[in-house]
Amino acid sequence: MTDHLRSDDFDDTEFSGEPAIIAAPWSTKAAFWLWLTEALIAVINGVLVLVFGPTLAAGLDPDLAATTAGVAIGFGILLIVAALFRALCAVYVLRGRTWAKYTLTILGVIGVGSALTQVTTAPGTTIASVLVTIAAIVFLYLPDSNAYFRRISEERLAGKARG
């Protein structure tokens, strides 16, 4: 069974009638804000790569410099797009969507693993990003967050069964 986007997927209230920012437990709200913080750090990193990557490549052999600048620009754009996707997933986490919880967990683990290999290039933002990501993942799996995701899933399934 596929889950297609419906107009109520973009409604800002959950089944309780409250906005998700009020209905969600504190640990889910903390995870939401931590994921937004992590996305902001990633956007800053992406902008830095876009601005300084081509500049650093300018001192290289001209053929190599053009390739390196192109790779830096592509990587900077990828960082920004991936950060925006994680921010979007964070909104759906706040709304209790389990797919977003698991998506952010997978992306977070991959991000932490790859960031640990890059600690020497940008230690400040890398360490901040790793710590924020680990904390965000932990908050997603605390008991009250798990109960919230379970309740929202059950209510969505019950709503589908009714109509």
Overview of this structure, please?
With 163 residues, the chain is an all-alpha fold. It has one domain. It is built from six helices and no strands. Helix 2 runs antiparallel to helix 3, helix 2 packs antiparallel against helix 5 and helix 4 packs antiparallel against helix 5. It is elongated and about 65 Å long. About 7% of the residues have low confidence.
Which features would summarize this protein structure in a list?
163 residues, mainly alpha, 6 helices, 77% helix, 0% strand
Helix coverage percent:
over 70%
Total domain modules: 1
Instruction: Tally the beta strands.
Output: 0
Q: How far apart, in Å, are the first and last alpha carbons?
A: 15 Å
Global geometry: elongated
Order of helices and strands: HHHHHH
- Mean pLDDT rating: 85
Radius of gyration: 19 Å
Counting DSSP H or I runs of 4 or more residues, the number of helices is: 6
